Amino acid sequence: MVPCDQRACADSGARGAGGPPVTVTGSERCYSSEEMSRALAVLGLLALTSVAAAHGVLERTEPRGGSTVKSAPTQVRLQFTGAIEPAYSHIRVLDGGGRRVDLGDSRVDAGNRSLLRVSLPALPPGRYKVAWRVLSIDSHVTEGDFTFRIAE
After folding, report:
1. What are residue 62's DSSP bridge partners?
2. Most buried residue, 37, 44, 73, 102, by most Cβ within 10 Å?
3. Number of domains in the chain
4. Residue 31 β-bridge partners
5. Using the 8-state DSSP alphabet, how is residue 87 labeled?
6. Which helix (H) or strand (E) holds 37?
7. Range of the domain at 142
């Protein structure tokens, strides 16, 4: 990219660096500072998006964090923005007393490497905490927790 304030296209009548029109040969094209700023902003957003996707950021949960459900779910499902490593990723579900209540079968879905799930027994009404830790395929660890409630 050639900024217009340094060089300009002769057919546009623009002037380079405050001087006379400058001829640009071949397939070069000059760009205004505004066009270059927009292009850099788009590239920056794309870079941030790919970094977030590679880091296995939590995208959504079932049940939703902070929600109250009418009936006990049979499993907890966490969807991430990128693929995660099965051997180093897990979910634990704890009751109000801090006791683990899931069935201990936390696993990455075979058909969707960005989905982590764990099965639950029939849970009584109450508040539950879901704690998770994942290793994304780019070797970054992310972890967190949220709660949900089963209504009486």
Report:
1. 77
2. 102
3. 2
4. 3
5. G
6. helix 33-54
7. 58-150
**Tokens of residue 1, six digits:** 């990219």
**95-123 mean pLDDT:** 97
Q: What is the mean pLDDT of residues 77-106?
A: 97
| 132 and 79 together in one domain | yes
pLDDT at 41: 65
68-79: b (≥16 Cβ within 10 Å) or e: ebeebbeebbbe
Strand (E) positions, 4-151?
30-31, 58-62, 68-69, 75-80, 90-94, 107-109, 112-119, 126-135, 141-150
Cis check for the bond before 63: say yes or no (omega within 30 of 0): yes
| 1-32 per-residue burial string, b: 16 or more CB within 10 A, e: under 16 | ebebbebbbeeeebebeeeeebebeeeeebbe
Do 48 and 66 fall into the same domain?
A: no
- Give every CB contact of residue 67 below 8 A, 6+ residues apart in sequence: 148, 149
What is the residue-wise DSSP string for 62-78? Answer: ESPTT-EESS--SEEEE
